[in-house]
Specification:
The protein has 351 residues and is α+β, with helices and mostly antiparallel strands. The protein is built from 10 helices and 13 strands. It has 3 domains: 1-30, no CATH class; 37-119 and 133-177, no CATH class; 187-335, Rieske [2Fe-2S] iron-sulphur domain (Rieske Iron-sulfur Protein, 3-layer Sandwich), CATH 2.102.10.
Length: 351
Protein backbone atom coordinates (compact mmCIF):
# COMPACT_ATOMS: atom_id res chain seq x y z
CA UNK A 1 0.00 0.00 0.00
CA UNK A 2 1.37 3.39 -0.92
CA UNK A 3 1.78 6.20 1.57
CA UNK A 4 0.61 9.75 0.97
CA UNK A 5 2.95 12.00 2.88
CA UNK A 6 1.19 14.15 5.48
CA UNK A 7 3.93 16.75 5.84
CA UNK A 8 4.80 18.63 8.99
CA UNK A 9 2.37 19.68 11.68
CA UNK A 10 0.06 16.66 11.58
CA UNK A 11 0.77 15.51 15.13
CA UNK A 12 0.52 11.85 16.02
CA UNK A 13 -0.95 11.04 12.61
CA UNK A 14 2.41 11.49 10.90
CA UNK A 15 3.72 8.38 12.68
CA UNK A 16 0.75 6.24 11.63
CA UNK A 17 2.36 4.75 8.48
CA UNK A 18 5.27 3.30 10.49
CA UNK A 19 2.99 1.80 13.12
CA UNK A 20 0.62 0.25 10.56
CA UNK A 21 3.38 -1.19 8.39
CA UNK A 22 2.95 1.19 5.44
CA UNK A 23 5.78 1.33 2.92
CA UNK A 24 7.03 4.66 1.55
CA UNK A 25 6.19 5.25 -2.09
CA UNK A 26 9.89 5.34 -3.00
CA UNK A 27 10.30 1.73 -1.83
CA UNK A 28 7.75 0.41 -4.33
CA UNK A 29 9.47 -0.48 -7.60
CA UNK A 30 7.81 0.84 -10.71
CA UNK A 31 7.00 -1.82 -13.27
CA UNK A 32 6.92 -0.42 -16.80
CA UNK A 33 4.13 -1.50 -19.11
CA UNK A 34 4.72 -3.09 -22.49
CA UNK A 35 3.82 0.18 -24.23
CA UNK A 36 6.48 1.98 -22.16
CA UNK A 37 9.32 -0.15 -23.50
CA UNK A 38 8.09 -1.40 -26.87
CA UNK A 39 7.43 1.29 -29.53
CA UNK A 40 5.41 -1.19 -31.59
CA UNK A 41 3.09 -1.85 -28.63
CA UNK A 42 2.70 1.90 -28.12
CA UNK A 43 1.76 2.40 -31.75
CA UNK A 44 -0.64 -0.53 -31.54
CA UNK A 45 -2.31 1.01 -28.48
CA UNK A 46 -2.51 4.34 -30.30
CA UNK A 47 -4.28 2.68 -33.21
CA UNK A 48 -6.70 0.94 -30.85
CA UNK A 49 -7.66 4.18 -29.15
CA UNK A 50 -8.06 6.12 -32.39
CA UNK A 51 -10.13 3.25 -33.85
CA UNK A 52 -12.56 3.51 -30.93
CA UNK A 53 -12.94 7.25 -31.49
CA UNK A 54 -13.51 6.72 -35.22
CA UNK A 55 -16.08 4.01 -34.52
CA UNK A 56 -17.85 6.46 -32.20
CA UNK A 57 -18.10 8.92 -35.09
CA UNK A 58 -19.44 6.15 -37.33
CA UNK A 59 -22.19 5.28 -34.86
CA UNK A 60 -23.22 8.95 -34.69
CA UNK A 61 -23.61 8.92 -38.48
CA UNK A 62 -25.62 5.67 -38.26
CA UNK A 63 -27.83 7.28 -35.60
CA UNK A 64 -28.74 10.10 -37.98
CA UNK A 65 -29.34 7.69 -40.87
CA UNK A 66 -31.62 5.55 -38.68
CA UNK A 67 -33.54 8.59 -37.48
CA UNK A 68 -34.26 9.65 -41.04
CA UNK A 69 -34.64 6.28 -42.79
CA UNK A 70 -36.50 3.97 -40.38
CA UNK A 71 -40.29 4.13 -40.36
CA UNK A 72 -41.56 5.09 -36.92
CA UNK A 73 -44.28 2.42 -37.12
CA UNK A 74 -41.84 -0.42 -37.92
CA UNK A 75 -41.41 -3.05 -35.20
CA UNK A 76 -38.95 -5.85 -34.54
CA UNK A 77 -39.11 -8.84 -32.21
CA UNK A 78 -36.40 -9.29 -29.58
CA UNK A 79 -36.29 -12.52 -27.51
CA UNK A 80 -36.22 -10.79 -24.12
CA UNK A 81 -38.10 -7.55 -24.78
CA UNK A 82 -40.74 -8.81 -27.20
CA UNK A 83 -42.06 -6.48 -29.91
CA UNK A 84 -40.31 -3.09 -29.82
CA UNK A 85 -40.05 -0.17 -32.20
CA UNK A 86 -37.27 -0.63 -34.76
CA UNK A 87 -36.34 3.05 -34.60
CA UNK A 88 -36.18 3.11 -30.80
CA UNK A 89 -33.92 0.09 -30.53
CA UNK A 90 -31.65 1.34 -33.33
CA UNK A 91 -31.32 4.86 -31.95
CA UNK A 92 -30.65 3.53 -28.47
CA UNK A 93 -27.98 1.11 -29.68
CA UNK A 94 -26.13 3.55 -31.92
CA UNK A 95 -26.10 6.40 -29.41
CA UNK A 96 -25.12 4.04 -26.58
CA UNK A 97 -22.29 2.62 -28.68
CA UNK A 98 -21.04 6.14 -29.53
CA UNK A 99 -20.92 7.09 -25.85
CA UNK A 100 -19.33 3.79 -24.83
CA UNK A 101 -16.58 3.97 -27.43
CA UNK A 102 -15.53 7.47 -26.37
CA UNK A 103 -15.30 6.31 -22.76
CA UNK A 104 -13.57 3.04 -23.60
CA UNK A 105 -11.05 4.85 -25.81
CA UNK A 106 -10.27 7.32 -23.06
CA UNK A 107 -9.73 4.49 -20.55
CA UNK A 108 -7.50 2.57 -22.96
CA UNK A 109 -5.50 5.74 -23.59
CA UNK A 110 -4.99 6.32 -19.87
CA UNK A 111 -4.09 2.69 -19.12
CA UNK A 112 -1.61 2.08 -21.91
CA UNK A 113 -0.15 5.42 -22.98
CA UNK A 114 -0.35 7.92 -20.14
CA UNK A 115 2.28 7.77 -17.35
CA UNK A 116 1.38 5.47 -14.46
CA UNK A 117 4.05 6.53 -11.96
CA UNK A 118 3.08 7.38 -8.40
CA UNK A 119 2.90 11.06 -7.54
CA UNK A 120 3.10 12.39 -3.98
CA UNK A 121 1.98 15.87 -3.05
CA UNK A 122 2.88 17.30 0.32
CA UNK A 123 -0.02 18.51 2.42
CA UNK A 124 -0.04 22.27 2.93
CA UNK A 125 -2.19 25.02 4.35
CA UNK A 126 -5.55 25.65 2.70
CA UNK A 127 -4.49 29.13 1.64
CA UNK A 128 -2.41 28.97 -1.55
CA UNK A 129 1.02 30.60 -1.52
CA UNK A 130 1.80 33.42 -3.92
CA UNK A 131 3.64 31.17 -6.33
CA UNK A 132 0.74 28.67 -6.54
CA UNK A 133 -0.56 30.09 -9.81
CA UNK A 134 2.76 29.57 -11.56
CA UNK A 135 3.07 26.11 -10.09
CA UNK A 136 -0.43 25.18 -11.27
CA UNK A 137 0.37 26.41 -14.77
CA UNK A 138 3.58 24.38 -14.78
CA UNK A 139 1.69 21.28 -13.62
CA UNK A 140 -0.85 21.81 -16.38
CA UNK A 141 1.86 21.99 -19.02
CA UNK A 142 3.52 18.92 -17.56
CA UNK A 143 0.22 17.01 -17.55
CA UNK A 144 -0.47 18.01 -21.14
CA UNK A 145 2.95 16.79 -22.17
CA UNK A 146 2.72 13.52 -20.23
CA UNK A 147 -0.77 12.73 -21.49
CA UNK A 148 0.54 12.68 -25.02
CA UNK A 149 -2.31 14.87 -26.29
CA UNK A 150 0.13 16.87 -28.40
CA UNK A 151 2.36 13.91 -29.29
CA UNK A 152 -0.29 11.40 -30.42
CA UNK A 153 -1.77 13.28 -33.37
CA UNK A 154 -4.12 10.52 -34.52
CA UNK A 155 -5.65 10.16 -31.06
CA UNK A 156 -6.02 13.92 -30.71
CA UNK A 157 -7.71 14.33 -34.07
CA UNK A 158 -10.06 11.36 -33.73
CA UNK A 159 -11.03 12.38 -30.17
CA UNK A 160 -11.83 15.91 -31.33
CA UNK A 161 -13.83 14.49 -34.24
CA UNK A 162 -15.79 12.16 -31.94
CA UNK A 163 -16.54 14.95 -29.48
CA UNK A 164 -17.62 17.30 -32.27
CA UNK A 165 -20.04 14.75 -33.77
CA UNK A 166 -21.38 13.45 -30.47
CA UNK A 167 -23.83 16.36 -29.76
CA UNK A 168 -25.46 15.98 -33.20
CA UNK A 169 -27.89 13.19 -32.11
CA UNK A 170 -29.04 15.40 -29.24
CA UNK A 171 -29.82 18.21 -31.69
CA UNK A 172 -31.60 15.79 -34.04
CA UNK A 173 -33.77 14.45 -31.21
CA UNK A 174 -34.59 17.95 -29.97
CA UNK A 175 -36.09 18.63 -33.40
CA UNK A 176 -39.02 16.38 -32.52
CA UNK A 177 -39.96 18.65 -29.62
CA UNK A 178 -41.35 21.35 -31.88
CA UNK A 179 -41.52 20.11 -35.48
CA UNK A 180 -44.11 17.61 -36.70
CA UNK A 181 -43.55 15.84 -40.04
CA UNK A 182 -45.71 17.17 -42.89
CA UNK A 183 -49.17 15.66 -42.87
CA UNK A 184 -48.82 14.16 -39.38
CA UNK A 185 -51.15 15.16 -36.52
CA UNK A 186 -49.93 17.71 -33.99
CA UNK A 187 -49.33 16.71 -30.34
CA UNK A 188 -52.60 18.41 -29.43
CA UNK A 189 -54.51 16.32 -31.96
CA UNK A 190 -52.78 13.11 -30.85
CA UNK A 191 -53.56 13.64 -27.17
CA UNK A 192 -57.10 14.84 -27.80
CA UNK A 193 -57.97 11.74 -29.85
CA UNK A 194 -58.45 8.53 -27.84
CA UNK A 195 -60.45 5.32 -28.26
CA UNK A 196 -63.32 6.78 -26.25
CA UNK A 197 -66.47 7.72 -28.17
CA UNK A 198 -70.21 7.70 -27.63
CA UNK A 199 -71.32 4.18 -26.71
CA UNK A 200 -67.86 2.72 -25.98
CA UNK A 201 -68.27 0.20 -23.17
CA UNK A 202 -66.13 0.60 -20.07
CA UNK A 203 -64.33 -2.61 -19.01
CA UNK A 204 -61.98 -3.49 -16.18
CA UNK A 205 -58.26 -3.21 -16.81
CA UNK A 206 -56.63 -5.67 -17.49
CA UNK A 207 -59.35 -8.35 -17.34
CA UNK A 208 -61.64 -6.57 -19.88
CA UNK A 209 -64.85 -7.40 -18.04
CA UNK A 210 -67.85 -5.07 -18.50
CA UNK A 211 -68.86 -3.06 -15.44
CA UNK A 212 -72.31 -2.40 -14.00
CA UNK A 213 -72.92 0.53 -11.63
CA UNK A 214 -73.79 -1.86 -8.79
CA UNK A 215 -70.31 -3.42 -9.09
CA UNK A 216 -68.74 -0.26 -7.62
CA UNK A 217 -69.49 0.52 -3.95
CA UNK A 218 -69.40 4.05 -2.56
CA UNK A 219 -65.74 4.91 -2.03
CA UNK A 220 -64.59 2.26 -4.49
CA UNK A 221 -62.15 2.78 -7.34
CA UNK A 222 -61.82 0.69 -10.50
CA UNK A 223 -59.07 0.95 -13.13
CA UNK A 224 -60.79 0.74 -16.49
CA UNK A 225 -60.28 0.92 -20.25
CA UNK A 226 -62.35 0.93 -23.46
CA UNK A 227 -63.67 -2.45 -24.55
CA UNK A 228 -61.79 -2.42 -27.86
CA UNK A 229 -58.38 -1.60 -26.30
CA UNK A 230 -56.94 -5.13 -26.49
CA UNK A 231 -57.91 -5.46 -30.15
CA UNK A 232 -56.32 -2.11 -31.03
CA UNK A 233 -53.11 -2.93 -29.13
CA UNK A 234 -52.68 -6.17 -31.08
CA UNK A 235 -53.34 -4.42 -34.38
CA UNK A 236 -50.94 -1.53 -33.68
CA UNK A 237 -48.31 -3.63 -31.94
CA UNK A 238 -47.72 -1.05 -29.18
CA UNK A 239 -49.24 0.47 -26.05
CA UNK A 240 -49.91 3.96 -27.42
CA UNK A 241 -53.68 3.57 -27.22
CA UNK A 242 -53.52 2.40 -23.60
CA UNK A 243 -51.35 5.37 -22.63
CA UNK A 244 -54.15 7.73 -23.66
CA UNK A 245 -57.31 5.75 -22.89
CA UNK A 246 -56.67 4.47 -19.33
CA UNK A 247 -59.24 5.79 -16.85
CA UNK A 248 -60.41 5.32 -13.28
CA UNK A 249 -63.99 5.00 -12.06
CA UNK A 250 -64.76 6.34 -8.58
CA UNK A 251 -68.11 6.21 -6.80
CA UNK A 252 -69.06 8.83 -4.23
CA UNK A 253 -72.28 10.08 -2.68
CA UNK A 254 -73.92 12.26 -5.37
CA UNK A 255 -74.46 14.93 -2.70
CA UNK A 256 -70.65 15.22 -2.34
CA UNK A 257 -70.16 16.21 -5.98
CA UNK A 258 -69.47 19.94 -6.03
CA UNK A 259 -68.98 20.37 -9.79
CA UNK A 260 -68.23 18.46 -12.96
CA UNK A 261 -66.70 19.33 -16.30
CA UNK A 262 -70.09 18.87 -17.98
CA UNK A 263 -73.73 18.59 -16.95
CA UNK A 264 -74.70 15.08 -15.91
CA UNK A 265 -71.31 13.53 -16.65
CA UNK A 266 -71.58 11.17 -13.68
CA UNK A 267 -73.92 8.23 -13.24
CA UNK A 268 -75.44 7.82 -9.76
CA UNK A 269 -72.28 9.32 -8.23
CA UNK A 270 -69.85 7.32 -10.41
CA UNK A 271 -67.35 9.62 -12.12
CA UNK A 272 -64.71 8.71 -14.70
CA UNK A 273 -61.39 10.53 -15.04
CA UNK A 274 -58.22 10.00 -17.05
CA UNK A 275 -55.68 7.92 -15.18
CA UNK A 276 -52.72 9.89 -16.58
CA UNK A 277 -51.42 12.77 -14.48
CA UNK A 278 -51.41 16.13 -16.25
CA UNK A 279 -47.97 16.96 -14.85
CA UNK A 280 -45.57 14.47 -16.47
CA UNK A 281 -47.88 11.55 -17.29
CA UNK A 282 -47.56 9.19 -14.33
CA UNK A 283 -50.47 6.73 -13.86
CA UNK A 284 -52.58 7.54 -10.81
CA UNK A 285 -54.72 5.28 -8.64
CA UNK A 286 -54.22 6.62 -5.08
CA UNK A 287 -57.68 7.77 -3.99
CA UNK A 288 -58.70 9.12 -0.59
CA UNK A 289 -62.38 8.40 0.00
CA UNK A 290 -62.97 11.01 2.72
CA UNK A 291 -61.64 14.01 0.78
CA UNK A 292 -62.25 12.62 -2.74
CA UNK A 293 -58.65 13.55 -3.57
CA UNK A 294 -56.57 11.70 -6.16
CA UNK A 295 -52.83 11.75 -5.42
CA UNK A 296 -50.08 11.29 -7.99
CA UNK A 297 -47.28 9.11 -6.51
CA UNK A 298 -44.56 10.72 -8.63
CA UNK A 299 -44.64 14.39 -7.62
CA UNK A 300 -47.63 14.58 -5.26
CA UNK A 301 -49.95 16.51 -7.54
CA UNK A 302 -53.41 16.24 -5.96
CA UNK A 303 -56.77 16.51 -7.74
CA UNK A 304 -60.26 16.91 -6.27
CA UNK A 305 -62.49 14.46 -8.11
CA UNK A 306 -65.59 15.90 -6.45
CA UNK A 307 -64.79 19.31 -7.90
CA UNK A 308 -64.19 18.77 -11.64
CA UNK A 309 -60.81 17.11 -11.01
CA UNK A 310 -59.25 20.51 -10.22
CA UNK A 311 -55.69 20.74 -8.89
CA UNK A 312 -55.52 21.37 -5.14
CA UNK A 313 -51.81 20.75 -4.60
CA UNK A 314 -48.57 20.04 -6.42
CA UNK A 315 -46.89 20.98 -9.69
CA UNK A 316 -49.67 19.93 -12.10
CA UNK A 317 -50.86 22.94 -14.13
CA UNK A 318 -54.30 21.72 -15.18
CA UNK A 319 -57.11 19.47 -13.99
CA UNK A 320 -57.63 15.80 -14.75
CA UNK A 321 -59.81 15.36 -17.87
CA UNK A 322 -63.23 13.87 -17.10
CA UNK A 323 -65.01 11.32 -19.30
CA UNK A 324 -68.83 11.59 -19.46
CA UNK A 325 -70.46 8.21 -18.70
CA UNK A 326 -73.88 6.55 -18.63
CA UNK A 327 -75.28 3.04 -19.08
CA UNK A 328 -76.36 1.13 -22.19
CA UNK A 329 -79.54 -0.90 -22.69
CA UNK A 330 -77.90 -3.89 -20.97
CA UNK A 331 -77.08 -1.86 -17.87
CA UNK A 332 -73.32 -1.68 -18.43
CA UNK A 333 -71.33 1.55 -18.02
CA UNK A 334 -70.44 3.24 -21.31
CA UNK A 335 -68.89 6.52 -22.41
CA UNK A 336 -71.33 9.20 -23.62
CA UNK A 337 -68.67 11.19 -25.53
CA UNK A 338 -64.90 11.43 -26.00
CA UNK A 339 -62.70 13.42 -23.65
CA UNK A 340 -63.35 17.12 -24.12
CA UNK A 341 -59.70 18.09 -23.63
CA UNK A 342 -56.26 16.48 -24.15
CA UNK A 343 -55.20 13.80 -21.71
CA UNK A 344 -51.73 13.42 -20.24
CA UNK A 345 -48.98 15.99 -19.59
CA UNK A 346 -49.36 19.65 -20.41
CA UNK A 347 -47.62 20.96 -23.54
CA UNK A 348 -47.33 24.27 -25.30
CA UNK A 349 -49.41 23.38 -28.38
CA UNK A 350 -52.42 22.61 -26.21
CA UNK A 351 -55.58 24.38 -27.38
Amino acid sequence: MTEISTGPGTGAGEHAPAKLGYSPVADIPHRPRVADTDPKAARRAERQVSSMFMLSMLFVVLFIIAFVAIDKSANVYLPVFGVVGAMNITLGFTMGAAIFLIGAGAIQWAKKLMPDVEVVQERHDLSSPAEATGEAAANYERGKEESGFARFKIIRRTLIGAMVLFPIPLIVMLRDLWISPPGSPSPSELLTTTLWKDGTRVVTDPTYLPIRPEDIPVGGLVSAAPADLEEVQIAEGNLNARAKAAIILVRMDPADIVSQQGDGWDYQGIVAYSKICTHVGCPIALYEQRTHHLLCPCHQSTFDLADSGNVVFGPAARRMPQLPIGVDVEGFIVAKAPFAEPVGPSFWERG
